[in-house]
Structures are given as structure tokens and as C-alpha cells.
Amino acid sequence: MSQKVKIAGWIAAGALAGALATVSLQTVARGTLSPLPLEELQQLAAVFGMIKSDYVEPVDEKKLITDAISGMVASLDPHSQYFDKKSYKEFREGTTGRFVGVGIEITQEDGVIRIVSPIEGSPADRAGLKPGDLITKIDDTAVKGLSMNDAVKRMRGEPGTKVLLTIFRKDESRTFPVTITREEIRTQSVKGKVIEPGYAWVRLSQFQERTVDDFVAKIEDIYKREPNLKGLVLDLRNDPGGLLDAAVAVSAAFLPANVTVVSTNGQIDESKSIFKARPEDYMRRRAADPLRRLPAALKTVPLVVLVNEGSASASEIVAGALQDHKRATIMGSQTFGKGSVQTVRPLGPDTALKITTARYYTPSGKTIQAKGIVPDIMIDDTAEGSPYAVLRTREADLQKHLVVGSEPEKPNPALEREREEALKKLEEESRKPASQRRPPEFGSDKDFPLLQGLAQLKGQPVKVSKTLVERKDEPKTE
């Protein structure tokens, strides 16, 4: 190795060792004593020096280090992540439920963007955009060929800036431009309505900072419209999770005071916790307890919770707590199985590390990890069955997911055959017109699982699935 490379390597080693010594001190403070692997750090520094001096063209030092950090964190599990400036900003927007944009919920259809719904009171709503409108261009860029993420990024921007959308409205057979001024949008993570006299439906699409307040407001509105509520369906399908304290609060809304909602266990002391149905465990971001406004009848109203393979993390905490305390009947399909806790630790003013620090356990002590919540009653997606459920990815399908025991995972040939058959059916389905492929919207009068939830609340016969079975991919603890 040349003297130049040696010097570069040792300087880098000194800088890395100094930085990591700081991290080590923080680790010691949390009660974990482990010496730094100096030989490996010297090797890392030597590689850094060689790349810096010998690579075919100049490299960005900061990018090299950032990529090294990202790779190190990504090697742990699917949910640990290094946030650079841009991704950290996007992450914080996701948890607050606030972003700058035009205010529409969208989906992709045949290469263009279809508006599912304008957010009430948003610039898009005020501009007269309607559900079903197709966006064909964003400013001068054709949407055809853009990914959904690219389309979203182009519609977002700074407050007060304008974006030109070209809209095709099918029912009027016309294309027209709409100029919309971007502003801060608050996403709606809570929806709900009285479905029929005596019965209501409340859907949580995510657990954000405003979810609890919006949930309380929605329940208050439902009870004003229907004071003698006979049954409630809490819909957590496709809810990917979010904030832990929001999940504890929603659980506490239905449970007796002070019962256990969820417990966590990890390597450091702060990851060993028990969260109960009490204000001090869910009021970390607020001055007053919003649950005090809820009607007392909510504690005893007959309750059904709908879940599916897309219900993960915080939504699994709620379903698990209500199931273990026998407060609700859980209906649907086995949930995603994300039973790990991620803690976000800032590394500076605009970067952070999201790292898995603990596992979740339901009140009875069952792990959620790679198993999920098994419903009390298995319900199909449609009256014809759940032909594509096997294609949905669950935690147990993710590479490097945390396992419960030390046994290696074994491939499941039967599951692979089911997936192949489902893929063939999906290919056939894709040849049909888009209007025939679109599933019923959640909360509609054609929502099959919701109709079964209502039947359960009324004591009527429920169409139990004949095909869905519990998945037991995860090895048992010895």
C-alpha cells in the first residue's frame, strides 16, 4: 500500500473511530458494554482510503460514508433505516399527516393516475376535482409511464407554488386544465359513518399524530347521529401502522382503564415497557386527554374489528389487545406480522437512524412478529373467495426478518404452488377492462367483509371462509 493510501486510511480510521466512540459512549449509557472492533474499523478505513485515492474517477466522500451507513443499517432487518436529509423530511411528514401538495388520494390505472377522492377542503377539492377524474399530465410532463411516486413528487412542492394538472373526466368525455396552488395538507387517517340505523363503521388508514383527535371527533359525530348505537365495525384493513401512542389510545377507548394494551422487550432498559389503557401511556404529545370526550357507551358497544394481510404494526397492537381482552370479534385474514419496535434517533439537525429496538407482545404475552394476529373468524375478501391473498407479502416473506427461535426457516412448497396458481388467475383478470377489475371501496354497500361484520353484530349467519387458514411459517421457540 502506498504511503499516501496509508495516511488517508489512518486519518479515516481516526475519524471513524472518534465518531463511533461517541456512539459507544451512548451505548454504554444505555447499559450495553461492548468494545469497538478496531481491526474491522481499520479495514473499513483502509477501503475508504483506497477508493478515495485509486478509484477510476473522483468520488464524493460524504456519499461514500452515507452509503456505507445505509448498507450497514439495511443489513439488520427490513425495518431499520438510515434517513438522509430528504428521507428524514418525508418520514416526519408521514407521521404528522401533513405535507404540501394539492390534496388528493390517488391510485394508478392503466398507466395514468386516477383520483380516488379529493381531501375535503383541500385546493383540489376547491378546484372541483372529482373521484374518478384521470390526471394525464402534470405541468408539461405526461403521466403515462411515470411511477406513482414520481407523480406524487411532481404534485408536491413549496406552499404557494402552482401546478398545472390536465384532467380527463370520463363521464363528460372532456379534457381540461386545472391550475392549483399548493398548500399544507392534513391527510385524513380516520373515516366513518352510520351505515344503517343502529350500526356504524369507522376506518383507520394509519396511526398519525392527529389520528386520536380525529378518531374521537368521528365517534362523537356518530353518536350524535345515532345515540343508541347497537354495534360498531372498526376497520383496520391495509392499515400499515404508525405511532405507538396512537395505537394505545385507540385501544384504551374501548378497554377498561389500566388493563395492559401491549408490552415491549429489547436489549436496553428503555425498550422494556408495558403500555396500559391509561392517559400517561398515550398522552406524550398532548396536554389534555382527548378520550375524556368519548361517550361512556363506547366501552361496551358490541365491536367487530376487520383486518387483513395489510394490517401491520400499530393496527396489530389494537387488534391483539381487543382480542386478548375479549372486547371485540376479530374478522378477516391473518395480519402482516410486524411485531418489532423502531426507535428514531436523530444524528443531527436533518438526519436520523430508525433502528429496531424491541419486539411487541400482546397482553397475553404472544409475540406478533412474523405471525401476526389470527382472526377469530376468517373472512374472504369477496363472496367468491380470496384468490389473491396468497400473493400479498407478509413479514415472514421479507428477507432478514426477525425470527422467534433459532431454527432456520423452511420453504413451503404448498404455499409456492398456491402463489403460482394465484398468479395465473391474476394474469387472466388483468385482461379484463379496468372497470371490471376494480374492487369495491371499503365502506361501500358492496364491501363483503364489512357486510359479514354487520351480520356478526346482528347475530345473523356469517359466510366464513372455506379456504383461508392460519399461516404457521414461523418456527416455535424451544
TrEMBL record:
Record-stated family: Belongs to the peptidase S41A family.
Identification of the protein by name: Carboxyl-terminal processing protease
A Pfam family matched in the record: CtpB_N-like
Residue segments, region Disordered: 405-478
Every PDZ domain range: 88-170
GO BP terms: proteolysis
Enzyme superclass (EC): hydrolase
Keyword Hydrolase: yes
Cited PROSITE patterns: PDZ
